[in-house]
Predict the 3D structure of the following.
Amino acid sequence: MPIDFQLPADPPAQIQPANAPSFDDQYANARALANGGQPELALAAYSALLTRSPGNTDVLLGRGIVYSRLGRWSEAEADLGAAATAAPDYADVWQALGNNYRWSEQPAKALDAYERLVRLRPDDPTALVARARMHRALGHAAQARADLEQARALHGDAAEIDGLLGDLQPGSYQTAAVPTAGSADTVNAAGYTWAASLSSSWLEVGTGPRWNDQTASLRHYAKTGSLGFETLRAQRFGRHDYAWALDAYADLWRGAYANLRYQHSATGRLFAANSGRAEVWQALGGGWEASLSDDVLGFDSRVNIYGVSIAKYSGNFYVQLRHQNIVSRDSHSTGERLLARWYYLGDADNYLELSANSGRSDDPLSLVGGRARSGGGGFAWVRYFSPQWGGKLGASFSRTAAGDGGNERGLNFALYRRW
């Protein structure tokens, strides 16, 4: 009987698993997803890496940056804070943590992070510029300028540095021809959202009755400007009057900003029934700024006050020269005002101010032959006793060549509160 001989079957083929991607390959893929506009996939990839290597600082940094870009601030802070704890000398972590706080509008925390960054990279101009931005946001003008000047010496971005230096001029937003109670910190509110003020002044006018006025204001700050509401009261010539006003500041283009104001009095006894102003400032670089303005007063005979100013900021000093032409139907006046401020604490809040002014009026109805000359000066001290509370005390005097009847002496004060 024939034997059926068969060869044994071949053993089953061994299936070779594909090589698992290395950690470095996974990390490179996660970074590519993050930088390629696929943040959710990047988060998943970084999370998978943390499963393989818990607490890895590079992975925590990468995932924290993605969380920041998505506006998930607390999750970003958790990752970046853990990375900073694990690797306190890792400069990239402090930069990312500072950015996260900056973007989430926490300037004090951002400043702390950038301080660590600058200590680790003292010769990096971008680190100095980042810290300067936070000093500026918190009202630390002197520190911000020092950082920017050092960044310039290290060949940082000249255009960026010039723009930031122009924005740091402390006279900015506070140099209106007739400052209002709300003029302090009009745009840069040192990180605050609201501010209120109450001011009053008394003026002795020759042998006549004393004049006085009061202003209360409330102002709201936004990223690109501010809007204030004011109520005003005045008592002069034995009469009194009331008015209200809206006063707005707004950023325009780089180094430029504007002030727009509208004021209304229902009775028009002392205030103009309607008045307004428009002024535009432009930073010129090197600490210089200039402005053009027009104030319109709606009395029975309309009055226009045209102004032009040039100003210079140097160190902790600010000096401004303003020329005005005051034009109405029957008269024409001119005036010059020199103002100097010393920011004695190196910030944008506290300063001493001196001013001097002179003027000439050509009025055919004047009792002094159609021409009168005047001059005067003033002093003011502004001090913030805490981050939220501040005050102002000032005095002024003026005299005319027409005689004693035109001499004036005044006192004024203001109380500031911000939150």
Remarks:
- Residues 170-188, 363-370 have pLDDT under 50 and may be disordered.
- Residues 23-167 form a domain with the Serine Threonine Protein Phosphatase 5, Tetratricopeptide repeat fold (CATH 1.25.40.10).
- The longest helix spans residues 39-52.
- The radius of gyration is 32 Å.
